[in-house]
């Protein structure tokens, strides 16, 4: 497991330094990216950045389950989730 993490502020600073852009500009681009990503996924559109990642909405059908405390049978409602898949370049970077 990774013992290090990169929060948003550190990410913005790193991208700004790498690209030569201001942190405000990079922050605005990240805001726009996440806004577009969430809107697209909410509409059911798969978003793919070839080689890096793919994000898509998934659907889980309604199903029967059990309350773990009482053992009583319950009905679990249908729901949507999000699936994020790593691309080949991201997988290669993780080796």
UniProtKB/TrEMBL annotation:
GO biological process, one term: chromosome condensation
Record-level GO cellular component terms: cytosol
Gene3D superfamilies documented for this protein: IHF-like DNA-binding proteins
Coiled-coil region list: none
Single GO MF descriptor: structural constituent of chromatin
CDD domains per UniProt: SPO1_TF1_like (cd14435)
A Pfam match: Bac_DNA_binding
InterPro entries the UniProt entry points to: Hist_DNA-bd, IHF-like_DNA-bd_dom_sf
Keywords of this entry: DNA condensation, DNA-binding
Presence of the UniProt keyword Ubl conjugation in the record: no
Family (UniProt): Belongs to the bacterial histone-like protein family.
PANTHER family per UniProt: DNA-BINDING PROTEIN HU, DNA-BINDING PROTEIN HU-BETA
Official protein name in the record: Integration host factor
Organism whose genome encodes this protein: Galbitalea soli
């Amino acid at each position: 497991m990774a013992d290090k993490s990169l929060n948003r502020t550190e990410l913005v600073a790193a991208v700004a330094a790498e690209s030569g852009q201001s942190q405000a500009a990079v922050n605005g681009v990240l805001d726009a990216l996440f806004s577009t990503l969430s809107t697209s996924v909410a509409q059911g559109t798969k978003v793919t950045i070839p080689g890096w990642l793919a994000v898509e909405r998934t659907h889980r059908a309604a199903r029967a389950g059990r309350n773990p405390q009482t053992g009583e049978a319950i009905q679990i409602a249908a729901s949507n989730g999000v699936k994020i898949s790593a691309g080949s370049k991201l997988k290669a970077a993780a080796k």
